[in-house]
Amino acid sequence: MNVTLIVGACQAGVQIASVMRERGDTAPIILIGEEAHRPYQRPPLSKGWIKGELQPDDVILRTREWFADRDIELVTGDRVVTVHRTADGTGTAVTEGGRRIAFDRLALTTGASARRLPLEGTDYHGVHYLRDADHAISLQPALADASAKNVVVIGGGFIGLETAAVARGLGKNVTVLEAAPRLVGRVVAEETSAFYLGAHRRRGVQVVLDARIARIIGGDARVAGAQGSVTGVELEDGTVIAADLVLIGVGVIPRTELAEQLGLDVEGGIVVDAAARASDGLTVSAGDCTMMPNPYPLGMGGSIRLESVNNALEQAKIAAASLLGEPAEYRSVPWFWSDQGDLKLQIAGLSTGYDSVVVRGDPDTEKFAVLYYREGRLIAADVVNHPAEFLAIKSALIKGGTISPAAAADVSTSLKSAIVLPDAVNA
């Protein structure tokens, strides 16, 4: 029957099923996810959802009718706990609910889970993580509660800063605690980090860099056996920051349990090749759980794990092709975005290995770009509140072109007109 089992009802999983149907595959497809919700978009959770602006249907990826029309069996609220594959490639998965699923083709789109902090006090009422829909469903009313006046965000990455911006917009007293010496330090240059530090402080957010957290503290439960509520976050120097609500956003950990059961190579994620095939040559994997050869033509060599919607969708297309016996090499220009209140950051390319930057425009206007260069060639950019320039830069990178540093620095020059295409670059 050539049954395809896709474990992980996320954007990558839905994309694999969709592409297989688009390519004419008519064999049974079973898409299974442990969350009770239908597959949904994650990015809005830290933005419109926790603001209270969105309803569940606003973030749902596909309707029930969409799955039915394509003869894709969607199973929600049941977790695959064991999976076994025989030498001929067929296998059986068993779920927590006792269901046994025989399959011929297997895709792992298991995603990632929130990284937990090994701190005293993380079990107090009022301490939240934000990775999935249940987290967001819990966090939204907590933020809306007028009695939650003081919000502490642990982690100055995208999720932390997006949540901080929402909380500040709701009138909360917000403090961001970041262990590193700058915000979003793993992703952007010092120029972009410095801008976001100043921008959040101008909006009234307190930011503590190089923060060393000792524990989360709380009051005793009023009822025997009940959970106490958070009252603050204590730093190692003894400083206590008042908190009625704490959000921990310190990254994610790829879900590799099933890959390990299958004996697949796992190293910082499920190791796959450029065709999204795992080490057994049979299983495919896509999305946040994978460690893959860098797909960016201008990227540094070696393996990389990318956490983005764009990567999940594009890698899933390659995974679907491999399941259908039509493998192709995954090559793509990564792009990302982060909405932090009225600040829209768009990133094109990967800046790893850059040796110089050009700041285009004045960061004080909150509308500018930071362009990254390696040996004089454009490799990436951070763009704040300027979608047209982001599109021009992304277009240049997709076409294999560049923009000279001189043209980038001259704000009177249109970036679109300044693109130098590959023939001229290589001349």
Write structural notes for this entry:
With 427 residues, the chain is α/β, with parallel strands linked by helices. It has 3 domains: 4-113 and 253-323, FAD/NAD(P)-binding domain (3-Layer(bba) Sandwich); 127-248, FAD/NAD(P)-binding domain, CATH 3.50.50; 342-425, Enolase-like, domain 1. Helices cover 25% and strands 28% of the residues. The strands form 8 sheets. The chain has a 5-stranded parallel beta sheet with strand order 3-2-1-7-19. Strands 9-16-10-11-12 form a 5-stranded parallel beta sheet. Strands 22-23-26-25-24 form a 5-stranded antiparallel beta sheet. Helix 1 (11-22) crosses helix 9. The longest helix is centred in the C-terminal third of the chain and has 15 residues, at 309-323. Residues 222-226 have low confidence and may be disordered.
- What is the CATH topology classification name of the largest domain? FAD/NAD(P)-binding domain
CATH homologous superfamily (4th level) name of the largest domain: FAD/NAD(P)-binding domain
Instruction: Tell me the number of strands.
Output: 28
Mean pLDDT: 95
What's the architecture of the largest domain in CATH terms?
3-Layer(bba) Sandwich
Main sheet overview: 5 strands, parallel
Unreliable runs: 222-226
| Widest beta sheet: strand line-up | 3-2-1-7-19
Structural class: alpha/beta
Provide the β-strand percentage band.
25-35%
CA(first)-CA(last) distance:
53 Å
Measured as a percent range, the helix fraction is 25-40%
Rg for CA atoms? 23 Å
Count of individual helical segments? 13
Number of domains: 3
CATH classification, class level of the largest domain: Alpha Beta
Looking at the structure, what is the overall shape? globular
